[in-house]
Design brief:
The structure holds 2 protein chains of 2 kinds.
Chain A: H1 8-23, E1 63-70, H2 77-96, E2 104-111, H3 116-129, E3 134-136, H4 141-153, E4 158-161, E5 176-178, H5 183-197, E6 203-208, H6 211-224, E7 231-236, H7 244-252, E8 257-261, H8 264-277, E9 284-286, H9 293-299, H10 301-304, E10 308-311, H11 322-334, H12 342-361, H13 367-375, E11 378-380, E12 391-392, E13 403-412, E14 419-424, E15 429-430
Parallel strand pairs in A: 1-2, 1-3, 3-4, 4-5, 6-7, 6-8, 8-9
Antiparallel strand pairs in A: 10-13, 11-12, 13-14, 13-15
Chain B: H1 7-29, H2 37-42, H3 46-70, H4 78-95, H5 100-122, H6 128-146, H7 148-154, E1 160-161, H8 181-204, H9 207-217, H10 219-224, H11 229-255, E2 257-258, H12 265-278, H13 283-294, H14 296-305, H15 312-333, H16 337-343, H17 345-353, H18 370-373
Helix pairs in contact in B: 1-8, 3-8, 3-11, 3-12, 3-13, 4-5, 4-6, 4-11, 5-11, 9-11, 12-13, 12-16
Classes of the chains: A alpha/beta, B mainly alpha.
């Protein structure tokens, strides 16, 4: 085929036209957002908030449409698939029991493969094409940081994010709530455990080279500050899956306690490498993000035995806790084929919090009424909440969980077949950021 | 070969141009058609956003096609160049208040120069070795971004966020209310996409384009014919990186968020796979590649969506396997991609008429097995003796 013969003047015309079109435009003159925004944080003072458009998106007389973005394929798929299973099961349970103020919930979860660009695409699809009422349970530092501003600017409730970055709730944004405890707080709790049980010993932290790892490290340093522990750090990128080099370097530095701030794939690599490959039986402490049963299976039950972490509520194995027994019932009925474990529990728990806020918002459901109801949720004890440590939310505190408990990876041989669990040790520790319920 | 286009072609091109121009408004103007089967799918406002994404991907994948398809240099690390362009543009726009057009152009030129320079050591490598070296580039990139030297600009792992820096990509005051965000961004992406496509079209049919192809097909032969192989290989890297820079800059402008992991090794490999699927050494192939890339969520959902109720859990777990399996099948059965298959349709029709049926067998099938699959030729040699894989020589660009 021939070349497209474009005369000189035609080019000039085209370029000039394009330039004129765009010069008056594309870059914007640094306008602030034209659409009314929800909760744009100001530089000083309390965040200003005006209810945005789309107040009743996704709400009909019979249905409430919720959206979610999880990794359903890719390396984080086990995480996302299980979370979705838990969410779907609890949604089915709620719908079977009358729904929310007469409306059934419909949940659409899209696959973001734990990447920013895909998360951004699917969230846009959910918000602009499906017109969901709210996004729930977005998982992961990387996908969440790609979409949180878009959701904020468009006034879409971003509920119960599964990411503990402090910048997500500090400063508080009206439409955004986190589910996880702040990574710095969590790190401090882990650090306190190290200070109490391994005072004066050298601590080696393996952390993800981003805010997740950095905040965890900061927390751990705060936690061990009182006990004279020396801290050294090794980092890895999110795309690395083999941490043998980092572990070896820590061993060479004669580290006596290892702390890991990474996601399951990397955490299991480090644990396996240290305990099995190098036969280096160093005590390991890991972030609560990894306190799930899958990590035990991946790392090898023998390798992970004795590793310490934290959890935010009762766990799937606690059959004697009434709330957990109910959760197991729901899972058996609506997600048969799924063994009860902590990821499905987290998914179900997120939906439970959301449904409570939706119910409290009443039959006249708008995003504004829903957010107000969520902010007033105080003292609600969900099926997995510790006794006396219910959900605590307020206009200045958008993190619902106020208590954690140390757990230790254990193989329970009294069960048949032997059951791997993160065995709770000690009592739940409360760190109240919301003083008391009004 | 600068014949003028036949009038029929010109009419089609003009119609296409008009369609592209009015696309963002179709869904409101043709609202009554939104219930119709095929058209209805297109007339959804969200398609405007997807079309905008398509435009950006078109530029990016065209660049990769120029390098790998036309010039035969396999690059698994192309995403690193896209990221360079994105970061340069993002820093210029958010921290130095540069207007988008000069920022995008600057990003393109800067990345092009970087690519040209990278092309120099790449001269020593070919085939799988070059692929590995470029893979190393993209794997190392996040660390480079987080390095202290540039962390002031790149904000290391926090990334760059246009909303936070007060420069969100919005239409200018003069058009406020008349055009919504997505429509405006659509033009911001489509206009450069069309311009870059025309440029690529002309480039591939010029002396430079023919030199690229010659170098790809036979370096020694090209050298014999007086083609400066080193120069053209480096130029190919440079030109493709220019496209990567422009594409990356537009991506970050329309996306408004950028981090070190936005363009990672996974998307880099996906890009190459898409280009192969769409069609190497083909403008139409790049268009297909960009289409599939922009709509990949829909594709996978559609395939996975054909699932009986209650089986979702199992299918979700298999999503990755289905996706990967399809890619493998597609690459094996269609080495020249979708565009190649379309180009060979007349040929296939001819063969069918003549009673011969030949499987498109790729070079990976061992020689002993091939004759059994190449029925119709009585198990004899493939059409072109110099080609291992039984396809015809791809002389003409298309």
């Amino acid at each position: 085929m021939a070349r497209i013969r474009i005369g000189r003047w035609a080019w000039v015309l085209v370029v000039a036209l394009a330039a004129v079109l765009a010069m008056s435009a594309c870059g914007g003159d640094n306008n602030e957002e034209k659409t009314p925004t929800a909760g744009t944080p100001q530089a000083t003072g309390a965040p200003a908030y005006t209810p945005g458009p789309g107040q009743t998106n996704g709400v009909t007389d019979t249905e409430i449409l919720l959206g979610g973005h999880l990794p359903l394929s890719g390396f984080a798929a086990a995480w996302g698939v299980n979370l979705k299973a838990g969410m779907d099961a609890w949604v089915a349970y709620v719908n079977d029991n009358g729904g929310v103020n007469g409306r059934k919930i419909k949940l659409i979860v899209e696959d973001d493969q734990y990447t920013g660009p895909l998360a951004s695409e699917v969230v846009r699809k959910l918000v602009e094409q499906d017109k969901v009422f709210a996004i729930v349970g977005g998982l992961g530092t990387v996908p969440d940081t790609a979409v949180y501003k878009y959701l904020e600017v468009n006034g879409v409730p971003d509920m119960f994010l599964l990411a503990g970055l402090s910048k997500l709730t500090d400063p508080v944004v009206k439409t955004r709530f986190s589910y996880l405890v702040d990574y710095t707080d969590e790190g401090r709790i882990l650090g306190e455990y190290i200070a109490k049980n391994y005072p004066g010993k050298k601590v080696g932290i393996i952390e993800q080279n981003d805010e997740f790892g950095q905040e965890g490290e900061k927390g751990i340093r705060e936690g061990v500050a009182s006990a004279n522990n020396e801290v050294v750090v090794e980092m890895f990128e999110t795309t690395e899956s083999d941490l043998s080099a980092q572990v070896q370097r820590l061993k060479n530095q004669n580290v006596e306690v290892m702390a890991i701030y990474g996601e399951p794939i990397q955490a299991t690599s480090a644990i396996k490498n240290a305990h099995e490959t190098l036969n280096w039986q160093v005590p390991i402490v890991i972030t609560g993000v990894d306190a799930v049963e899958i990590v035990g299976a991946l790392a090898g039950y023998a390798n992970i035995e004795g590793t310490v972490s934290v959890v935010f509520g009762h766990q799937a194995y606690e059959t004697d806790w009434p709330g957990i027994a109910k959760y197991r019932e729901v899972l058996a009925k609506y997600a048969s084929g799924k063994t009860p474990e902590n990821l499905t529990l987290t998914g179900a728990s997120i939906i439970d919090f959301t449904v409570k806020a939706l119910t409290d918002a009443g039959p006249d459901l708008t995003r504004d009424s829903f957010l107000k109801a969520a902010e007033s949720l105080c003292g609600y004890e969900s099926f997995a909440s510790f006794k006396g440590a219910g959900v605590k939310l307020s206009p200045t505190d958008h993190r619902p969980i106020e208590a954690e408990q140390y757990v230790k990876a254990t193989m329970d041989n009294t069960q048949n077949p032997p059951l791997f669990k993160w065995q709770a040790i000690g009592e739940p520790i409360s760190f109240e950021s919301t003083p008391n319920c009004p | 070969m600068t014949r003028t286009l036949p009038p029929a072609r010109v009419v089609w091109l003009v119609l296409l141009g008009v369609l592209l121009f009015v696309f963002p408004y179709l869904h409101s103007v043709l609202g009554f058609m939104s219930g119709w089967p095929v058209i209805g799918w297109v007339l959804v406002p969200f398609r405007v956003f997807q079309a905008m994404r398509f435009g950006v991907w078109l530029i990016v994948l065209m660049g990769l096609n120029l390098l790998t398809g036309y010039n035969g240099q396999i690059s698994l690390g192309y995403a690193a160049f896209v990221a360079v362009g994105a970061y340069v543009a993002a820093v210029l726009m958010t921290q130095y208040g540069v207007h988008v057009i000069p920022a995008v152009l600057a990003a393109g030129v800067f990345t092009g120069i970087v690519g040209f320079l990278v092309g120099a050591p790449a001269l020593r490598l070919s085939g799988p070795y070059l692929a590995i070296a470029t893979l190393a580039l993209v794997i190392a990139f996040p660390q480079v971004v987080k390095h202290d030297l540039v962390a002031d600009w790149t904000h290391a792992s926090q990334g760059i966020n246009f909303y936070e820096s007060g420069t969100p990509p919005l239409p200018p005051g003069v058009l406020e209310g008349r055009v919504d965000n997505n429509q405006w961004l659509y033009y911001c992406a489509m206009v450069p996409a069309v311009i870059m496509t025309v440029l690529a079209w002309n480039l591939t049919r010029s002396r430079i384009g023919r030199a690229f192809l010659a170098v790809r097909d036979t370096e020694l032969g090209a050298e014999q014919m007086g083609v400066n192989v080193s120069l053209y290989k480096m130029t190919a890297f440079g030109v493709s990186s220019f496209y990567a820079g422009i594409g990356g800059a537009l991506f970050v402008f329309t996306e408004a968020v950028l981090g070190p992991s936005t363009f990672d090794v996974n998307i880099s490999i996906t890009m190459l796979v898409m280009v192969v699927l769409g069609g190497l050494a083909s403008i139409l192939g790049s268009i297909f590649a960009a289409l599939i890339m922009a709509l990949r969520v829909e594709f996978v959902n559609a395939i996975v969506g054909v699932v009986p109720r209650g089986q979702e859990i199992r299918i979700d777990a298999l999503r990755g396997a289905i996706y990967g399996g399809l890619l493998v099948i597609a690459v094996i059965t269609g080495p020249w991609g979708l565009a190649g298959a379309i180009r060979r349709l007349p040929l296939a029709k001819e063969r069918l008429m003549a009673g011969k049926f030949r499987l498109p067998v790729s070079g990976i099938v061992p020689a002993k097995v091939r004759p059994f699959l190449l029925r119709g030729s009585r198990g004899a040699k493939p059409a072109d003796p110099s080609r291992q894989d039984g396809t015809e020589a791809q002389d003409e660009p298309h």
